[in-house]
Design a protein that fits this description.
The protein is an alpha/beta fold and 349 residues long. Helices cover 33% and strands 14% of the residues. The protein is built from nine helices and twelve strands. The strands form four sheets. A five-stranded parallel β-sheet has the order 3-4-7-8-9. A three-stranded antiparallel β-sheet has the order 10-12-11, with no helix packed on it. Helix 4 links the parallel strand 3 and strand 4. Helix 3 crosses helix 4 and helix 5 runs parallel beside helix 6. The termini are far apart.
């Protein structure tokens, strides 16, 4: 009679692998812990002689309950004071500290353009209030850039000129253009090296389409300008009746309106000039000054522009009074300086 076979079923979940693989006496515990099951050949319940291995059970992810210690210590409280709850006067002071600089926004040298304008992106109210301060309290010098730009395949690049100013005005929109209060415009002819393929007449500022577009935009939308300074620095003296292009320039320029209009030449001052710091100047961030010199325009033409552009009813009468006092003080100092030279040199200086 055949003897019954003995089947061994091992539950590997109960096996200490470190102990089983070690070659010491503790390895015998592996056999002792294994459960031995006898199966008869006639039993149909188990038909495989191989050891059965139970599949690993995946543990379900349990959501951690929020602990009182992990909760944020601070939460939003609408009753607490915020920036928008401050009085309008205090918010205006903060806008001026963040957005206004003493230096001019110079398009010629491309300086002083970092004014933390990303502060205006917080919400709509801050944008409307801050934009009026940003564009209304800074001084803008619209002078042509002498930099050159062009496409990669072009052999010679042309000068940027007034293109950057035109793109700037188109970008900021009509509402911000109406907020501009202090503007200086420099009318400059392109040099032969700037536009080598253009003739002398084409290089004059009266023929610059970008400049004409700028004047047209300002004449239409710059309704809040208080101080306007014009500087004619062309290679020849400006005359409004010289040719059709100049007449067109004149018709566009007289559309500009401002409370105070002055005509002079903006230039970088240095210590060699020894000019009176009380004269008309525009601050530059390097500590230099844009000083007022005689402009390249006939005096009668300049007086005509001042008369045409100056508003009859100023938007800011205090600005007009301040300018008149400034002019009177400057004239008195200039007269005193001339009298001093007469006493020292007897009129032979």
């Amino acid at each position: 009679m055949r003897s019954k076979r003995v089947r061994t079923s091992v539950d590997y979940n109960e096996v200490d692998t470190d102990t089983a693989m070690s070659g010491n006496e503790d390895g015998s515990k592996f056999v002792k812990r294994a459960r031995l099951e006898e199966h008869s050949l006639g039993d149909s319940a188990v038909k495989t002689p191989r050891a059965s291995v139970s599949a690993p059970i995946k543990k379900s992810k349990q959501q951690k309950q929020p602990n009182a210690s992990t909760k944020p210590k601070f939460h939003y409280d609408a009753s607490r004071a915020g920036f928008m709850s401050l009085p309008a006067e205090i918010r205006l002071s903060i806008y001026k500290l963040v957005l206004v600089k003493d230096d001019c926004v110079d398009f010629c040298q491309r300086r002083n353009f970092a004014h933390s304008s990303h502060f205006l992106r917080l919400n709509r109210v801050i944008h409307e209030e801050g934009a009026a301060v940003l564009y209304g309290s800074n001084k803008f010098i619209f002078a042509p850039s002498k930099a050159k730009a062009g496409s990669l395949w072009e052999e010679r690049w042309g000068w940027v000129g007034y293109r950057g100013i035109r793109e700037f005005l188109e970008m900021i929109g009509t509402q911000n253009i109406a907020s501009l209060k202090t503007i200086a415009m420099v009318f400059y002819d392109a040099a032969p090296s700037d536009e080598p393929k253009a003739s002398t007449e084409i290089r004059r500022f009266q023929n610059s389409q970008d400049l004409l577009s700028i004047i047209d935009i300002l004449g239409t939308h710059a309704t809040g300008t208080e101080m306007l300074k014009l500087s004619f620095t062309g290679r020849s003296r400006y005359h409004s009746k010289s040719n059709p292009a100049t007449k067109n320039f004149y018709n566009l320029l007289v559309r500009l309106k401002a409370d105070v209009v002055t005509i002079g030449k903006l230039d970088i001052d240095n210590s060699a000039w020894g000019l009176d710091p009380h004269e008309d100047w525009w601050t530059d961030r390097r500590g230099l000054r844009y000083q007022d010199f005689e402009s390249n325009i006939y005096e009668s033409e300049g007086d005509m522009f001042i008369k045409k552009i100056t508003r009859h009813i100023p938007l800011n009468p205090s600005m007009v009074a301040q300018h008149e006092k400034f002019v009177a003080d400057a004239e008195a100092k200039r007269t005193a300086k001339l009298a001093k030279f007469d006493r020292l040199y007897g009129g032979d200086w």
